[in-house]
Amino acid sequence: MSTTIAPAPPLPTRSGPTLRASTRVVLRQHRRALWAAGALALVGALVLVGYTLWAVHVTDAFESDPCSSAGASGARCDARIQEFGDSMSEFGTLLTYTGLAMLLLPVFVGAFVAGPMIAREFENGSYKVSWTQSVSPTRWLLAKLAVPALLLIAVVSVLSAAFAWARSHLDFDHTSSWWSPLVFPAMGTAPVGRALLGLAIGALAGVLIRRTVPAMSVAVLAPCASIVVLTTQLDALWPLRTSISTEISGLEGNSWEVDMGRITADGRRLAMETCRPDFSAAEARCAAEHHATGFYIDYHPTSHFWPLQLVETGILLVLAAALVAVTFRVLRRRHG
Predict the structure, then answer these.
(1) Residue range 94-118: average pLDDT?
(2) pTM, whole model, 2 decimals?
(3) Which of 106, 121, 181, 233 lies 20 to 30 angstroms, CA to CA, from 305?
């Protein structure tokens, strides 16, 4: 009599740590820096909102004061007007420093990702601990990038919205224009794109250089270069409008004047310095000699704010995605 023994079921295989587990490791490793960054951003947003509410209160109180009316004079009114001007100037200074912080944010992001998050692990060999626990290099790097990326999107969006809201409550005389290097990069969608580009630059520097200080140095210099390029080429991201008139006249509204000069009957453009506009007979003779018939102004109206924002954001995201793809390719070529 023979008996048939059924084969034992295969033992379940244990899969390696999931991306969620790798993310938790990153959060534990850098919890102090991440908590500090989040807390600092929250405090900054609260200060900005609180200061704005205070400025609104000061403005309402001044507008209800008889000294705010035209022609008001006297020692009391002079002191009241000076006090109000100083308060608004102080508020404008706060927005200026906030805009500067938002402008330089990609530099700090790139330095942190390049140095403490990635290059330092290669430098001291701690990355081997993760890779010997069934965590692939690709998953390890993906977790390193996913955590700060999500934090950046949330934090920068809140700060950008708070900045735009605060600026909308400030009189134009006390602040910079919407195209200013300390205003435009702090509003809309561009701040998120700039921050993610800084993250991508830092990741590539960390994987390529693998030494903390040199990687951080590169991650600081590269975003600074991108800031300069974006600032100087911003006006070229969307077609300009042109205003032509027979007399020098200003633009209506808060428009960004990019270029101005003289124009001839056949459409040629001349620099404004060709004939100095001093309303003299010499100017008239110079204009006649050059056949200048009027003036042109190339400008961006306020309605171009969002097209410029979206085009810049698209360029930033494409560059960031390309740099991240290169970073993963370098990692795979070196470690499989």
Answers:
(1) 90
(2) 0.84
(3) 106
